[in-house]
Design a protein that fits this description.
globular; D-Maltodextrin-Binding Protein, domain 2; 170 residues; alpha/beta; 3-stranded parallel beta sheet; two-stranded antiparallel sheet; single chain
């Protein structure tokens, strides 16, 4: 399988986890922890906004995988928002960090872009979702996502994977 398809599959898998995360905290302003209960069903219509910089074949593959995901999860609508090139996406993330209510549910990003978000506790720990057998895979190893990709997504805290989110959407 081509790397771009694997990357898109990993992104859509993250969307599945994020869709659950978006419904789980009921307005809490803290990062998710493994002690919080992770819901196994989405009971309300949920929209997941995903900022990305995937044009061409990657974008087409992401759209196809997103459509498949939405068919399997009819209460979750994924709004793919291409932000242009990587530097455009980075600039949008950086400028929007000043107005957290305008941040997406999930974004494609390099960990270094999210340093300030991590310091300001604007990220959600995805490890409990990955490790939950109902909404995740039971472990990172069982996910089939390459260790190098997961390790590359870690920010500061070992064994935790984070994504950018607007705390008002939690």
């Amino acid at each position: 399988m081509k790397f771009s398809k694997k990357l898109a599959m990993a992104a859509v898998a993250a969307l599945a986890l994020v869709g659950t995360a978006a419904c789980s905290n009921g307005g809490s302003n803290s990062s998710s922890s493994s002690s919080e209960k992770i819901p196994s069903k989405i009971t309300k219509k949920t929209t997941v906004v995903f900022w990305n910089a995937m044009p061409g074949v990657q974008g087409s593959t992401l759209k196809q995988l997103t459509n498949e995901f939405e068919k399997k999860n009819p209460k979750i609508n994924v709004k793919l928002e291409n932000q242009g090139a990587y530097n455009d996406l980075q600039a949008k993330i950086n400028s929007t960090l000043q107005s957290p209510n305008n941040l997406p549910t999930i974004t494609q990003a390099y960990p270094g872009w999210l340093w300030n978000a991590a310091q300001n506790k604007m990220l959600v720990n995805m490890t409990p979702y990955i490790n939950d057998k109902n909404v995740g895979w039971g472990s990172a190893k069982a996910s089939g996502i390459r260790t190098e990709l997961l390790d590359g997504a870690k920010i500061k805290v070992p064994n935790m994977v984070f994504h950018l989110t607007s705390q008002s959407k939690l």
